[in-house]
Amino acid sequence: MSFNLIASTAITASGESISSLLPKIEELLVGIVGFAVLLFILKKFAYPQFEATFQERTAAIEGGIEKAEKAQEQASAALAQYQAQLADARGEASTIRSEAQADRARIVEEARSEATAAAEQVTSRAAAQMEADRLAAKAELSAEVGRIALDLASRVVGEALTDDARARATVDRFIADLESSTQEGTR
Amino acid sequence: MSSAAFALSHNFVAAAGEGFTPPGLGEFIFQPYFSDGTLPWLTKPLVASVFAAVVVMVFFLVGSRQRALVPGRFQFAVESVYTFVRNGIARDVIGHGFEKYVPYLVTAFAFIAVSNLFGVIPGIQFPTLARLGFPLALALFSWAIYLGIGIKRAGFFGYFKSVMFPPGLPVFIYPLLAPIELIQVLLIRPFSLALRLTANMFAGHILLLLFTLGGTYMLFNESVLLKVLAPFALASAVGLTSFEAFIQVLQAYIFTLLSALYIAEAMSEEH
Description:
With 187 residues, chain A is mostly helical. Chain A has 3 helices and no strands. Chain A has one domain. In chain A, helix 2 packs across helix 3 (165-186). Chain A is rod-shaped, with a radius of gyration of 68 Å. Chain B is mostly helical and 271 residues long. Chain B is built from 8 helices and no strands. Classes of the chains: A mainly alpha (187), B mainly alpha (271). The interface between A and B is large, with 44 and 52 residues.
C-alpha cells in the first residue's frame, strides 16, 4: 500500500514536472501584454515627469549657486567700498586732527600775543599813570617846596614875602633852575 | 488538471498518514478560481502578476505627480528607485544615449522586484516569476530590444555578421565561434535571463515552504525530539524569508543589469 502510494506520487510528480516547469501560453500572453501596457503608461505619464523634475531641480540648484555667487560678489564689492570709505574717513579724520592742531597752535599763539599786548598795555598805562602821578606829585611838591622856602626865607629875612609878586617870581625861577639842574644831572 | 488535483489530494493524504511529504512541483500548480470551468486560465499567479503591474503603475504615477523640487518622503522614495536604475544601471552600463532605454529598464526592474517580493508578502506568498511564462515574456522584451538596436544600427546582415564574425580573430576560430555566438544572441541570452529568474524564485519558494511546512510538521509530531527541534526550523524560515527578500531584489537587479549590458553591446560598433 505505502509502496504503491510512493510510486504513484513519484509518477504523478514526474508527470507534473513538465506542466509546472513549462511556460503556460496565457501566462506568457498576460506577461507580454501586461508589461507592455505598464511600460506604455509609465513611459508616457510617469517618467517624463521625473526627468522634468530633475531638470528643474538642477536648474534651481544652479540658479541658487549663481545667486549665491552674485551675492558673494556684491558682498565683496560692498566690503571694498566700505573699506575705501573707511580709509577716506580715516584720512579725513587725520586731516581734521592736524588742522585742529594747527588751529590750536594758532589760537594759543594769538591768545598769547593778545595777552602779551594786553599786559603791555596795562604796563604802559600804569607807567603813564605813574608818570602823571609823579609829575603831579612833583608839581605839588615844588609848589610846596616854594611855599616852604618862602616861609623859611621870610622868616629868615623877617619880612613878609608871601604876597609879593617879585618874591614869587624869584621862587619860580629858583625852582626852574633847580629843575633844569636836576634834569641835566639825570641825563 | 485532474492529475494535478489527484496529486494534491494525494499529497495531503500522504502528509496526514504516512509521514512528511516535502513540498514539490505541485506547489507551483494552481487551480482556476472558478471550479465550474468558466475562465479556466484565471489562476493565482496570473492575478498576482497583474496586481504587481498595478502596484508598480500606481507607485510611479503617484510618485511622479507631485514634482516638488524639494521632495517629500514618498516622492523621494519613488525618485530613488527611478534614479537608481537610471544612473546606477542605465547610465553606467550603456553610457552615451542611455536615456532612451531608461523607461524599459526602470519598468522591468520595478515589475520584477515587486513580483518577486510577492513571494514573501503575507497573503500572496508566491513569487509569480517562478512560473516561467512571466519571466519569458520579460526576457522577450529585452531580446527584441537589443536585437532591434543591433539590426537598426548595422542592418540585418550587418548585425549578425558583427555578432558571428567579430573582426581581429584568427580565421580558423570562426567556424567554431560563429554558431556559438549566433545561438548565444538568439536563444541563450533570453532563456538564461528567464530561467535565472524562474529558477531562483522557484528554489527560494521551495526552501521557504520546506522550512515552514517541515517546522509545522515537526511541531505537531508525536516525537519529542522533533517537537524540540521544530522552533529552530521555524526560526530558520523567518531568517530565510529576509534572505529571500534580498535575493528577490537582487535578481531584479541582475535581470536589469544584464539587459542593459546586452543593449550596450548591441549599441556599440565593435562586438
